[in-house]
Amino acid sequence: MVLMRRLPLFFIALLFAAPSAQADIEKIAIPGEKGMSFYWWPKLPSIAGWHQDKDASFHLSVNALASDNSTFSNSETVMYAKAIFKPRDPEIKSLEMLIARDKKDFLANVPGVEIREVKSLVTADGKQFKSFLFIPKGSGNWERVTYGEEGEFFLIFTVSSRSKSGYDATEITYEKLIGLYKE
After folding, report:
1. Stated pTM of the model
2. Do the Cβ atoms of 66 and 49 come closer than 8 Å?
């Protein structure tokens, strides 16, 4: 019986001890009543003026960043990163397919949004990630979404703001975040 109680803790320890041969992904497993809950997201570098909102990160399954002195839910502008383990999304065979699906979903949920490809961003280890600007028609969030691929993961980095001025004020910080990210 004692072994059964310690087994989940042993499993969690193995996740953290296993060397990562792919993207630098945080892998967290939390035992619950319905089994293990797994959370995977890119490890992000520290950025002055920003902090990880752990509650939002676990709730949304992303690495959620909010500006200091705010939370993810009440901040005008937020940044977040998501890792998609390729075997868990087998119908997506390429980064281009992922981008096409995201664009299609976004257009279906936010009618009239303009999607424009913008300059690619380069990570600290020299990888080029494709980047797109999502411009609302009227009210809505201004977003820039950047897509990359490393090993067994697709990576998605997003900056989202309730206003154009909030987006403009954060764009350089967002580019710096991706520029400091490395595998």
Report:
1. 0.85
2. no
Which single residue is written with the structure tokens 């600007």? 133
Residue 176, H or E segment: helix 164-180
Q: Which DSSP state fits 19?
A: P
116 residue type, one letter: R
- Summarised one tens digit per residue, pLDDT across range 150-172 is 999 999 999 999 999 999 999 99
Which residue, among 165, 136, 138, has the nearest Cα to 77 in the 3D structure?
165
Rg from Cα positions in the chain: 18
3-state DSSP helix/strand/coil % of the chain, to nearest 5: 30, 35, 30
Which residue pairs from 50-58 have beta carbons closer than 8 angstroms and sit at least 24 positions apart in sequence?
50/79, 50/173
DSSP symbol at 163:
S
